Input
Amino acid sequence: MFGALTSVALTVVPLSTANAASAATSSSQSKGTRVSAWSPSMTTGGPSFSNRTIRMVVHSSVAGSGARITLSNRYSTTPLDVTEADMAVQASGGEATRGTIRNITFGASRHVTIPAGAEAVSDIIPISVSAGENLLVSLYAPGTTGTSTWHSDAFDTTYIASGNHAGDDTAASFGTTTTSWYYLAGFDVLSSTARGTVVAFGDSITDGYHSSTGTYTRWPDFLGRRLGARPGPRKLGVVDAGIGGNRVLTDVPNLWQGVSALKRFGHDALGQPGVKDVILFEGINDIGNNAGPTGQPLTARDLINGYRTLIGEAHAAHVDVIGATLMPDEGNGYYTRAAEAIRQSVNQWIRTSGAFDGVVDFDKTMRDPANPAALNPAYDSGDHIHPDDEGMKVMAYAIDLRLLRT
Output
């Protein structure tokens, strides 16, 4: 059912070293800074595929060339066999711009088998991309994959075909669509304009829940456009490392919502090529579920200790961490007076402790002036916790760009 491990020298690396390897091995091959342009955080629990081509959209946050992709089998229990992978410029939907399809190789081979728990970084792909441009990545898996490593809530469209259609210009054979990404965990480039990567690390608000599908209106998308509009070469790639439902301290029982931030931070944030800054905006799911670290009720001190651990890991890697205050949620099922007291205590610590390298006060920006415990109705998507598209834009413009190391 699965092909044997290929004998060529693949760049197949375990867990958190994949993207670091990508950056290190390419720095001498071309001028520019290797940065991450797009990289969703992955989880377990995705569907199994058999004899399918999966075509996914990559929305690049920066311009660059010398592109590479990372395929992740990190959360799967069986090897992933991919016999063809291609990249092209998106024309529209699942249709590629004619003449732009490029073959993707791994260790000079079109065929790669990635062991369970591992990731593979591609060879350089001869394609250039502009900031905000969309590319299509197509993967053909001939066998049965088993449970896939995926990102459930993509808020973008993925196209699936029966059989091998990785090299098709048209989307005629792609009769099924989903709104998830599968196995595709990274896209990095050599950039002559970007000087590093900023990682937006968080939960469903960062992931873009309730943002409009295919419009790139998550707050990290708006942040990327703000950075790209600045004059001169002082830009950053932006990575959205949000996972809906994710928590700081504990794994979520719904496996597709991810292991804790404490477990994934080193890989999903600090493992990104060129990472300089992390905007840490997570904790409301810990509070709303009253999920303490040992099965006990949560305290503010528990969450603060979790933040301190992440800050320590980042500083050891010479990465700055900007802390974001937690937004209000009165009217949502998470809200109780006890939960609100924890949120207020945690936010006060974020603002005043000096533990972070900077602070973004999303709470102040997004709360209702007439009721500070609630989200501003002008930005409320309707569930009283997730912003709408306009709210996402307001969040991105609340970030002082001087905090980021451009």
The two ends are 48 Å apart (CA to CA). The first strand starts at residue 12 and ends at 14.
